[in-house]
Amino acid sequence: MTAARPWPLLAILLVAAVPQAHGQDDLDDPEEPPVVNNVAIDESNFDRWVYGNMGGTGANARDRLESLLTLNIDEADRVCKLTDAQKKKLRLAGHGDLKRFLERVDEARRVFHRLNRDQNNINAIYQETVPLATMLRAGLFGDESFFGKTLRTTLDPEQAGRYRANLEEKARFRYRAKVTVAVANLDAAVGLTADQRRKLVELVIRETRLPVKSAANYENYVVLYKMSRLPEEKFRPILDEARYRDLNRQLQQSRNMEQFLKANGYLDEEEPAKPAEHGHD
Hints:
- The protein is an all-alpha fold.
- The chain folds into 2 domains: 8-155, no CATH class; 170-263, no CATH class.
- Helix content is 65%, strand content 0%.
- The chain has 13 helices and no strands.
- The radius of gyration is 24 Å and the shape is flat.
């Protein structure tokens, strides 16, 4: 299964149609694309698609990303008590990650400038920004970044142990938050009591593994899929027959997403297989 294409109507709502001036600037740029339908896609849309809620633009993005790098270094220092030399190495590595990302943004922006005079190209332009937005959501300084690799080789064994423990603690906290949101979403369809919600959250936390990586907009599906792999007898002490049947219908949607979630690396390949078919619809 492939990821859904952006909705044309939603994309069109982001277009700002503006008349194009035909002055000296147009004549001085021989590579400027011709005006089509006398409209253009406003560049603020490009920045919004790439940076999202971060609010970055071409002018201030580097400052915002530099601040993120500093926060990552400060967090590592808080946990590991870094030396000045270690901090310097991490900042150099982080600058490498920023440079690589911003070069990709510049490449996508050049595509935008080449195509933005025709609103019929809006989906093509949007697709150029999708991998960049995904990189930002996943974090520019993760395990496979220059920063992450440098961190692993720079820390001494004691520092590395503290850092791993801190990461695991934060991962468990985030996972609990995701599970809580997923169960709250189920409540609208299933009609759970407060005690049932609490017990379902504890069940999922206790019986499932932490996600292998951030699933961005699909995190809810990941949690529901993990729930769908649990045996029926785990739910019976918590839910009556009617609620279990309603829950199973909701979990079926996540089973339909299995191949997509696996193809994108959002599921643990060692996730235990579902031992028996759930419920009776």
